[in-house]
Design the sequence.
């Protein structure tokens, strides 16, 4: 398909584009004659008009514009995607037209043609299509044009844009036209550098006109409430300005241009207009938030993507003249603070505060994007950042006092009280969720720039010490931690706030320097000794399974957040404890809350014996579990909370000492409890999913942490308990879900069946690749644990269909990585499977080779290479089992099909992992040596021309030159070299020969010669275009010829 696309691009596409433009040009000329206007395209009318066309006439003109746009958005590179794909940023798209388009790209009449449609057909559907064509033309690859040509094209574009902006009305009334016009402005800067833009004719007039359009657009949303406009229009406008400002920080050409001018400020004029845009943006949004619920909900109740994108661009623009920006923000903040203390319209003030704090956060965060400022050096910018931080910290303290009911109403300066003290009384609910979220967002932006391993600035602490007495990073971190813990102490808290709070806490615990400072803080030390549900209500176990009357948090969010929370805590413990005898008491004190919960489970499950592989029958005879100490729901909540918390800790314990300490605490006292819990709650996905994930974390040998002392059997005990857990899952859970969970309900089917299977596959693989257990010991002492683990894998294979296995990406990846691991450590197990099971595995391997994921392809290569080496080695030694040979003989056709698929991929596709593919390919050729040079060769040559067949036949004959009939490593390396040379020879020989005959026959009936294009001029003024087209291309409908061209 790629070769067909490229062939069509090189032979027909330009003619089709010129065909459409010729007719579109005649339409404009004819209509200008009717209106008594000059026929010159570069003379735009002084006033816009809206010409009314006949129905068929209008339809064909619309189709012609669509045809031109389809040509410009064509897949020029043959990648299978087009320029409209949503996964490509709109501002970063490039029109990759061939060199043959050069003369038409630099021809100004094409730009003037599409601009003319705005002036003559305003408020019609033709205008967005015409402007869309201009959007694409503005994105032509830079390598196609030289400097002078690029300047000429830029002049065409900017003159047309300025002409539109000078026409009052028209454009703003149409949403689609406005959207495309703003796209054109953004795309213009994406493909043009600032030093080139400055050289255009009348640059000062152009930039001033664009500035006034930007201000009008900002004010139109505020004054006229035009929310029907697409929110992306403002995004495109701000994108233009922010990219211009960002260019200033690294433009040597602009510096040279400025130095040659007597007045540098007249070169780009950005320092005049950009600060005003920032001011208008902030003020218009603050004013609009007074009583406007629509804008408020749009900005803060959705995913906030639009808001953050706009603020990121505004923050870059703010750095151009940072002293003006900070003066504006400080003034707005102080005015709101005064209103807030007077309790006048507090809800409205909170709305405006929320937006303003988001602005402050993005402005501070822009320090890492650009440090450009025409008026301030970097250190002085840090001083202004300090002024912003001071105000947010003061507001945070004031809000916290109001929440606790301790606001001093008589003290007008209460908002400036000392920040280093915190209230002791915590309210039941945060004062304002959106405002709290904004404060956390500001802290996160500040942390990225000034706290951690890379954020160092002494200037900002001069301001903080002057106003708040904060002298260093440790004191500031202490305030942040107190704020985070205060949020977690609310008895009623929403999902968003607790997620953002724990996310900030987790981010603080990532850097080495941050953690080293955090563990020294009093709030952290207090937490390490008091992390109970009494202090932090969100840790209450019973709140995880059902919605409480006093809580808005659901089970799913609690579980995930608990794990994240204790993972952050675990990283701090790694720095705080040395996990030796001196720290035993402290570690025991920290684990005491977990011990209390586990001891409760011990009492609940005391009637259950510890599960082993030898007492399965005893468990099978036990009746239904009827606890007396707690209800099943309470036990379920307790289990979920414990495994989630422990999983977080375990993920952070990456050292040998920390992990050993955790395992010694778990075994033998508490680890068997989780097997009993799985046995009891085998039918509840909310329990067994987090429980299995905990065991996956426990068995993962991160950074070689599972290195136990040689005198301890801890590794074997861990694997034995894991094997028993998997055995219970196989005999209880899989049997239950196979009989009760329908495949038609996708969400339940995935959660109850596929999700735990994915985790089990990961557990098995973690045990096999961990390299901490010698699995031969289990066979030596007749322990069935290892065999049970392998049987779980077989049970999983028989319980899921291949369609499901290959349809869910996580399941697919888990399966193929496990297959690769098993082939490396237990190839005899896979090779001697029963014939149906082996066929199941081999069919999935065949499908895996067709996967676009290179990881899956590599796993298939490893399995097939290892299997074939095992087969040849066993045959050579005379030890090949009968089951192995039966499997090879039964699926000989499938092996041959895999061989053909791999060769086709090497010859005709972009095989990026040819080194990995060559290894199993040699074994497949030797396995099918008798058929390779006869049947398989004919199958590869079938359907090609005689010339291609000769090339392929010669290359295939050379493929085995110098190759022995063995699978030694040296022989494989030699064969890999032959495969590489084989592919290169074929690619060189077939280059230029892949022209499709069907394409030629399907397009030969369309006369797109120059004489055909010139015949378009015969269209009369009052004759519909459809009649002229029909005379040239006969068709049963007026628009069918154009639709046919668009389809091509």
Sequence:
């Amino acid at each position: 398909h790629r070769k067909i696309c490229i062939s069509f691009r090189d032979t027909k596409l330009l003619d089709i584009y010129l065909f459409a433009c010729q007719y579109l040009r005649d339409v404009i000329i004819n209509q200008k004659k009717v209106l008594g206007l000059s026929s010159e395209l570069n003379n735009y009318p002084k006033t816009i008009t809206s010409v009314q066309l006949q129905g068929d006439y209008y339809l064909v003109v619309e189709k012609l514009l669509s045809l031109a746009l389809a040509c410009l958005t064509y897949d020029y590179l043959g990648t299978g995607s087009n320029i409209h794909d949503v996964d490509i940023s709109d501002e970063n798209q490039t029109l990759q037209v061939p060199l043959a388009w050069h003369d038409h790209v630099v021809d100004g009449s094409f730009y003037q043609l599409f601009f003319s449609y705005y002036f003559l057909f305003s408020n019609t559907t033709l205008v967005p299509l015409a402007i869309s064509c201009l959007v694409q033309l503005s994105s032509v690859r830079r390598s196609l044009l030289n400097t002078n040509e690029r300047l000429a094209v830029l002049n065409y574009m900017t003159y047309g844009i300025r002409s539109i902006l000078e026409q009052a009305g028209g454009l703003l009334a149409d949403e689609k036209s406005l959207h495309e016009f703003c796209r054109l402005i953004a795309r213009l800067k994406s493909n043009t550098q600032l030093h080139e833009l400055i050289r255009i004719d009348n640059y000062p007039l152009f930039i001033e006109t664009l500035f006034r359009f930007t201000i009008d657009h900002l004010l139109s949303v505020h004054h006229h409430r035009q929310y029907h406009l697409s929110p992306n229009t403002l995004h495109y406008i701000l994108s233009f300005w922010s990219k211009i400002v960002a260019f200033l920080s690294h433009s040597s050409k602009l510096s040279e241009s400025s130095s040659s001018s007597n007045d540098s400020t007249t070169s780009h004029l950005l320092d005049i207009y950009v600060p005003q845009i920032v001011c208008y943006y902030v003020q218009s949004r603050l004013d609009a938030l007074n009583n406007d619920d629509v804008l408020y909900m749009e900005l803060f109740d959705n995913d906030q993507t639009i808001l953050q994108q706009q603020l990121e661009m505004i923050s870059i623009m703010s750095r151009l003249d940072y002293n003006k920006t900070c003066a504006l923000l400080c003034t707005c903040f102080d005015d709101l603070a005064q209103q807030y203390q007077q309790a006048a319209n507090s809800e409205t003030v909170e709305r405006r505060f929320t937006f303003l704090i988001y602005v402050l956060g993005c402005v501070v965060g822009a320090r890492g994007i650009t440090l450009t400022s025409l008026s301030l050096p970097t250190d002085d910018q840090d001083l202004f950042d300090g002024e912003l931080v001071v105000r947010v910290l003061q507001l945070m303290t004031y809000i916290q006092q109001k929440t606790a009911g301790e606001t001093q109403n008589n003290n007008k300066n209460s908002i400036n009280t000392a920040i280093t003290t915190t209230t002791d009384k915590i309210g039941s609910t945060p004062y304002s969720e959106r405002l709290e979220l904004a404060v956390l967002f500001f802290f996160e932006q500040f942390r990225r720039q000034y706290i951690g391993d890379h954020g160092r600035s002494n200037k900002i602490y001069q301001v903080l010490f002057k106003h708040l007495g904060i002298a260093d990073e440790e004191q500031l971190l202490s305030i942040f931690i107190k704020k985070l813990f205060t949020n977690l102490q609310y008895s009623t808290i929403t999902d968003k706030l607790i997620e953002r709070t724990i996310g900030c806490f987790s981010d603080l615990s990532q850097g080495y320097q941050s953690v080293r400072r955090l563990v020294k803080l009093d709030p952290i030390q207090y937490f390490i000794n008091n992390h109970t549900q009494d202090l932090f209500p969100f840790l209450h176990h019973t709140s995880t399974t059902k919605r409480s009357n006093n809580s808005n948090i659901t089970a799913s969010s609690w579980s995930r957040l608990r794990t994240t929370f204790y993972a952050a805590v675990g990283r701090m413990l790694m720095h705080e404890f040395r996990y030796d005898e001196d720290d035993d008491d402290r570690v025991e004190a920290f684990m005491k809350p977990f011990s209390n919960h586990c001891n409760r489970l011990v009492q609940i499950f005391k009637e259950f014996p510890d599960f082993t592989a030898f007492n399965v029958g005893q468990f099978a005879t036990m009746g239904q579990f009827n606890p007396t100490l707690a209800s099943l729901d309470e036990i379920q909540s307790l289990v979920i909370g414990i495994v989630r918390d422990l999983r977080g800790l375990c993920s952070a314990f990456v050292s040998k000492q920390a992990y050993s300490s955790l395992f010694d605490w778990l075994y033998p006292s508490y680890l068997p409890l989780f097997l009993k819990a799985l046995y009891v709650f085998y039918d509840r996905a909310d329990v067994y999913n987090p429980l299995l994930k905990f065991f996956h974390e426990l068995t993962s040998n991160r950074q070689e942490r599972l290195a136990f002392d040689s005198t301890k059997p801890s590794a074997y005990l861990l694997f034995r308990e894991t094997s028993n857990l998997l055995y219970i899952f196989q005999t209880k859970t899989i049997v239950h879900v196979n009989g009760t969970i329908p495949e038609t309900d996708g969400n339940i089917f995935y959660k109850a069946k596929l999700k735990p299977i994915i985790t089990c596959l990961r557990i098995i693989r973690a045990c096999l690749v961990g390299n901490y257990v010698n699995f031969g010991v289990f066979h030596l002492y007749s322990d069935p644990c290892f065999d049970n683990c392998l049987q779980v894998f077989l049970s999983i294979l028989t319980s899921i269909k291949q369609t499901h296995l290959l349809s869910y990406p996580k399941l697919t990846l888990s399966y193929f990585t496990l297959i690769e691991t098993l082939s490396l450590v237990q190839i005899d197990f896979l090779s001697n499977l029963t014939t149906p099971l082996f066929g199941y595995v081999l069919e999935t391997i065949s499908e895996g080779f067709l996967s676009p994921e290179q990881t899956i392809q590599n796993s298939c290569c490893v399995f097939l290479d290892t299997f074939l080496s095992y087969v040849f080695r066993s045959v050579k030694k005379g030890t090949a089992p009968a089951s192995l040979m039966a499997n090879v003989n039964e699926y000989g056709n499938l092996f041959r099909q895999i061989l053909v698929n791999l060769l086709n991929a090497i010859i005709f596709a972009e095989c990026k992992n040819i080194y990995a593919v060559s290894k199993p390919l040699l074994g497949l050729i030797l396995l099918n040596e008798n058929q390779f040079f006869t049947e398989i060769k004919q199958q590869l040559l079938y359907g090609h021309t005689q010339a291609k067949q000769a090339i392929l036949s010669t290359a295939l004959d050379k493929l085995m030159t110098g190759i022995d009939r063995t699978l030694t490593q040296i022989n494989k390396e030699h064969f890999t070299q032959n495969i590489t040379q084989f592919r290169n020879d074929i690619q060189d020989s077939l280059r230029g020969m892949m022209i499709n005959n069907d394409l030629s026959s399907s397009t030969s009936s369309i006369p797109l010669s120059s004489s055909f294009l010139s015949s378009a001029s015969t269209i009369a003024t009052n004759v519909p275009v459809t009649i002229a087209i029909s005379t040239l291309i006969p068709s049963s409908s007026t628009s069918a010829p154009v639709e046919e061209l668009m389809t091509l």
Remarks:
- Residues 274-405+431-484 form one domain.
